[in-house]
Structure formats: C-alpha cells, structure tokens
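Q: Hi! First time doing this. I have a protein sequence and I read that you can turn it into a structure. Is that right? Here it is:
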Amino acid sequence: MVIQAASELVKSSVEPVLEQYRPVILASLKFSKFTLGTVAPQFTGISIIEDGSEGITMELEMQWDGNPSIILDIKTYVGVALPVQVKNIGFTGIFRLIFRPLVDEFPCFGAVCYSLRQKKKLDFTLKVVGGDMTAIPGLSDAIEGTIRDAIEDSITWPVRKVIPILPGDYSDLELKPTGVLEVKLIQAKELTNKDLIGKSDPFAVLYVRPIRDRMKKSKIINNDLNPIWNEHFEFVVEDPLTQHLVVKIYDDEGLQSAELLGCAHIRLNELEPGKVKDIWLKLVKDLEIQRDQKNRGEVHLELLYCPIGMKNGLTNPFSQTETMTSLERVLKNGAEGKETSPNGGEISKRREVIVRGVLSVTVISADDLPPADIGGKADPYAVLIMKKAQIKNKTRVVNESLNPVWNQTFDFVVEDGLHDMLIVEVWDHDTFGKDFMGKCILTLTRVLMEGEYKDTFELSESKSGKLNLHLKWNPQPLYRDSQ
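A: Yes, that's right. Below is the predicted 3D structure, encoded as structure tokens:
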C-alpha cells in the first residue's frame, strides 16, 4: 500500500513536469504505467549544514538502483503511438532538507523544504515495447533529454518544494529572483567542422535554468568556424552561489536536428557583482565528464551580474515597465525623466537610452608579429573596423618590421555603443597584394564603463603577435521617450 501510494504521488507530480518539457516532435507524453518497484534507496551519507539561518539544513547522499515499472505513452503528430519503457535506472545524488523556521511547538519546525542538491549520476535505458526505438529519428535523444531536463529544473537546487507542517506563511522559503545576469555572446574560435562540404553553421544556446522560455538562442552564422555574434541576452538568477551559465554551440543542419559542437559553463559565484567579466571558455564535449582533451574551440563572453537592490542606481529589473537591460541602466546616469500629469502631479516618464558618442582609438604598436616575407620580416599595417556601422580606417605601412610602432589615433562616431564592436586586423603589405596576419575583436563595454584604458591584446587566427591599443570614450548620449 505504501509503495502504491508513493507511486501515485510521484506520478501525479512528475507527469505535469514531463508535459512542460515535452519535445516539439511529440504530441503528448504521459505515463501508462508507473510503479516504483520493491528496491528501496540506500542512504550512504548524512551531514548537517550550518548556514546561519533560523533552521536546520540536512543533506542526505542517496543511491538507488531500482526496479520500477515505468511505461511512457507517446504520441507523435503523424499519429504514431508508441509505448516506451524506462529500464535499468541507476541514480546517485544528494538531497537537501531544510527544516525552518524552528518553533517551540511539536515537531519543532514549521515547514520542510526538499531539493536535489547535486545529481551525481543518472543512468537509464529506453525501449519501445514490441518495437524499434529507431523507427522515429531523434526520438530516443528527445525523450532522454526531456527526462534529464525535467529532473534538472523541477527539483534541482535552487528549486525547492515547500511542505507546510504547521499553519503559517512560508512564502519566504519559496524560490525568488535575486538578480539579473547580463550576457554578451561575442564570438567563438576554432570550432570543429562537422560539414563534409564547406564549414559548420554555428549557433549558440544559453541558459541558467533549462526551461524552454528562459533558454536563449543566437542567430546562425553560416559557413564559419570563427563566428562573431555580438548578441546580448538577459537571465533571471535565483541563487548566484550555486547556479551557473551554460553555453552550448551547435552546427545547424537545416531540417535535421542540430549537432553539438561543444559546451561550456561558468559558475555565477565567480562573478563580482556590478563588474563586467570578460572571459574565454574552453569548449568540451560533456560538462559532466572532464576527460575531454580534444580541442573543440573556445567561446568569448562578457558577463555582468546585478543583484536586486544593488546600490548603484539600478532599478528593479523585473518591473514590467522596465525595458532597459541592467547594463543600460548602469550607463543611463539619470535617464529617467519627469513629466507633469493632467492633475498637476509629477509622473515618471520612461526613456530609452541610446549610448552614442565618439570612440578614439590609438593604435600604438604591435609586438612579435609572425613573419610574412621570405626574408623573415613583414610590412604591417592595421585596419580598424566598426562592425555595426561598417566604418573603416587604416594605419600607415611600417616596412620590414615584426614590432611596428604606429602611434596613430582614429575617431569613430558611434551611434549604438552597447551593440557595436571594434575589429582591428593586421595585414602585411605586398606590391601585388596583401596577407592577413591576425586580428582582435573588442566590444565597447569596458571603455563605456571606464571612460578610457590602455591594454595589450593577443591576435587571434595568428601564430603569434600582440596589439597595443589605447581607447577613449567621449559620450554624447541621446534619450528617446518610450511609447
């Protein structure tokens, strides 16, 4: 009876979650049979966590190699119905129990929260009852991904289920937004080529929690193993101490399912609130298996975490009337206007910030450029490009030098500083043409926030070489009233 009651409870709880994560190739996904079996889970460790709160936090390490009887009733949009059995389940994880608040009345706590603190292992196999799993291409991967995503996001910390024990208001125990993560997906380099003809067509999927409506997808860059996206995304954060940003880069296959080129993640507790972090992340085949030595390329990101209520002029990023990103709010410097209402009182008037100004770029010098001529020298010059505006300038040619000094300054009128970027390419000048020597790509985020800086940048797509630049920003902001 206990097993039957527990099975019904789990089934009624899990089935709506599976439907929420149901892959687009399926019309429905439900249980036709669900029993937990006769094998009880084993608890192999227990610990008490002291977190300074008015409660008790307990963590239990659980191992379960179960013999459940689980059959999924699957229907596709073309009318095919398949019973899929989930077999050979092996699970190891750490469950967190929070007893809070502590009270004088028995059982001495008002509510209990439970959550899967860490998923160490989840193995299972899928089998079509009386049929072949390969009958529908991509079906096995889609169902397996659905199960893993449902577990990952419906019960994995910081998600927690609250069970009231004594009457009271326990809304403070529920999951709430604590901040916003601003992500600029800049570029990737040296991606794996999966195409027989031409090059991969990469796009990126980014998320903090793998819920469909909170996962972001970049545009597709066709035929390019060094794509430049320069796209901005914003994510709600509930627990910066334990959550992380995941980036997965795929090769677009048209009507077929996309192929994973590599993935990476960064923990949000590595970010300093209110400070932009510029980072290259190495791509791997699987985030949970750290033995991948193959070079799958790197992805370049800019990250900014802004907690709610941060004392730097940020307003509530979750307000429905707030349309600017957190980075725009950092830069707006009083972009909120006031307007008199018909009854004589002041009302707030939303304004959209347009980060406009003049960017001054001084190309100081380059060091250790790769030889481009037969004599082991080169005749280098630099080309400066504002990507969005497609404005170009170039330096003079320095003859026979691998460490040229230019000291030339160029001014660019930038109409949208938050979404433009500077590309500096180095070329070798020849009488009958030119040879590419490398490039560096810079967003304007740092110069917008610091006003001026000088730094050295390594050349990409080059065996060696560094570029010394000085950037200065002269803002000329515009404010456009939102409708």
